[in-house]
Specification:
two-stranded parallel sheet; 5 helices; 171 residues; DNA-binding; alpha+beta; globular; 5 strands
DNA sequence: TAAGTGCGTCGTT
DNA sequence: AACGACGCACTTA
């Protein structure tokens, strides 16, 4: 069942303002800062349920840690109900890749028991609604090249660089 | 080595 | 039926 989005809340960071989306089940989306667009659309009208405010506090801390290249202390529940079964399988696997570690699309495919679905894994990574916290940036091409990133390759290199998993030298 | 081409594969739309 | 955030074999330079 797909829950409705209940709130969109901004998260100011040294890298810009991210936007977090919540449903009654948990964090369901995270958007990168939009170049040129300062705070917008964020619903900050005070009618935010206490539970979501609590989750938001966790997300702010988790994002700060992640952007600093360190593993988040604690995450709120993640609502991935908008994803297909396959996508949820892939995203769950991404959550098992520790900070500073990487896997290839092929390795992820093997890890979830679908060794032939390599390309489909790429699609699922691209459909990840919660980048950074669900570390799709830690998936590289088999040849150790950068692969792709829906949020822009600059972000992928930055995130990996801060985790010490990418040398600016190559790629 | 580096870069380009073609094809197999499979989940999603 | 078409399209990928892929992987691999193979060809050129």
């Amino acid at each position: 069942m797909r829950r409705e989005v209940v709130a969109h809340l901004p998260i100011p960071t040294k890298d810009g303002e991210f936007l977090a989306s919540y449903s009654s089940a948990g964090l369901c989306g995270l958007r990168f800062p939009r170049a040129g667009k300062p705070g917008r659309g964020a619903r900050t009208d005070g009618n935010i349920p206490a539970e979501i405010q609590r989750w938001h506090g966790l997300v702010k801390q988790a994002l700060a840690s992640s952007l600093a290249g360190q593993a988040p202390r604690k995450l709120p529940p993640l609502d991935v109900s908008r994803g297909t079964k396959f996508q949820q399988l892939v995203w769950a696997q991404l959550g098992r890749i520790g900070a500073g570690k990487t896997m290839s699309y092929k390795e992820v495919a093997q890890a979830i028991g679908r060794p032939g679905a390599v390309r489909a894994v790429g699609g699922a990574c691209g459909a990840n609604p919660i980048p950074v916290l669900v570390p799709c940036h830690r998936v590289l091409a088999a040849n150790r090249k950068i692969g792709g990133f829906s949020g822009g390759l600059a972000w992928k290199r930055t995130l990996l660089g801060r985790e010490g998993a990418w040398e600016e030298n190559r790629g």
